[in-house]
Amino acid sequence: MKKTTLKDIAKALNVSVSTVSKALHDIPEISEETRILIQNYAKEKNYRPNYNALSLKNKRTKSIGVIIPNMLNYFYMQVLQGIEKEAAKNGYRIITCISNESYQKEAEILDMLSTGSIDGFLLSISKETEENGAYSHFEDSVKFGFPIVMFDRVSDHIECDKIINDDFNGSVNAVTDLAKQGCKRIAFVSPFKNLSKGKIRFEGYKKGLALNNLPFDENLVINESEADYKQYASMISPLFKQTIDGIISTNESTAVAAMKLANENGYKIPEDLAVISFSNGLLARHSNPKLTCVSQHGEIMGATAVKKLIEKLEQKADSNTFATELVETDIVVRDSTR
Question: H or E segment at 170?
Fold first, then answer.
């Protein structure tokens, strides 16, 4: 079946191609009656915009490439929701790709989408990229005129706009919250040792201890980089050779593993052991007991990242000036704390 074009619609309705384009883009320079007539006819004929043609004419596709590290993380699903809503509101579509924590996959995606499919990138760096410090593929994309806004996992080595959580104060506040509940032996558990957000959360944990006059004890720290969720229980088990009354975890899965081990070791939660986890996903809401969390507000992060990129694409902001914006966190209290 022949694809309907702007010219076909214009000829059928005896109007100009320009009038058809304005009607389909809701530009208020034509009458409401004409706009509705054209839009209904286009819908009837199953008209679809030719994005390649738009790209050649306007040098813009109105498309944004989004790269996330993995699709199983509920936080990234929240970020995507914020991105999609804000992009659609501004007339942009998104093309979402998954790096699966792989540097090679991430580089291939950037190369593929940089052929003219998109105007710019929103991305969170893969674990392998960050651990290896390999950022040349980002530098190449910027060099070839594709602006990047990084979110959540970012790199100081790349000059671009960045949207991150206030992870430092999130950790400080988590320690303070546990200290107010009477906890004096607060442990820190993380599988993100080599990731920027893991490092920041650890520094916040130490600062929180200092602010609450609690000593830092390296025996209460489980800070790993290679463990996956199947290894969390064995990773955390040394903690229960120590005396602990609180745990701050950098992700939900380690927190749930810690609570399971606590039960096996005779701890009552939250009476004997209080637990706070970063993120605020489905696992936290359905664990037993339900997890108190440092909420990261993924939708706000996604919407903020899109706004920042569109400002650059539409030249509403200086393309040579970059900023890092913080999304504040707060604590959602559930059953794992007192």
Answer: helix 167-180
DSSP per-residue letters across 306-333: HHHHHHHHTTSS-TT---EEEEP-EEE-
For 55-214, where are the E strands, in sequence order?
Answer: 63-68, 93-98, 120-123, 148-151, 161-165, 186-190
Angstrom CA distances, 269 to 222, 259, 280, stand at 20, 8, 19
Q: Nearest 5°: phi and psi at 316?
A: -90, -5
The C-alpha atoms of residue 316 and residue 257 are separated, in whole angstroms, by 47
Q: What's the whole-model pTM score? A: 0.81
Q: Which residues does 260 contact at the CB level (< 8 Å), separation at least 6? A: 233
Q: Copy the structure tokens of residue 92.
A: 């942009």
Task: Find tokens 């007192």 and name the residue.
Answer: 338
pLDDT of 170 higher than 70: yes
Q: 28 pLDDT exceeds 80?
A: no
C-alpha 178/C-alpha 233 separation (Å) is 23
Residues 6+ apart with CB under 8 A from 98: 67, 68, 69, 70, 71, 105
162: left (phi over 0), alpha (psi -120 to 50) or beta: beta
Please check whether residue 246 is in contact with residue 259, taking contact to mean a CB–CB distance below 8 angstroms.
Answer: no
Other C-beta atoms lying within 10 Å of the C-beta of residue 72: 9
Instruction: End-to-end CA distance of the chain: give it in Å, rounded.
Output: 66
Confidence of residue 2 (pLDDT cuts 50, 70, 90): low
Q: Is 212 exposed, middle or buried (0-12, 13-18, 19+ CB in 10 A)?
A: middle
What is the phi/psi pair of residue 320, to 5°?
-105, 5
Query: Hey, which bits of 99-220 come out as E strands?
Result: 120-123, 148-151, 161-165, 186-190
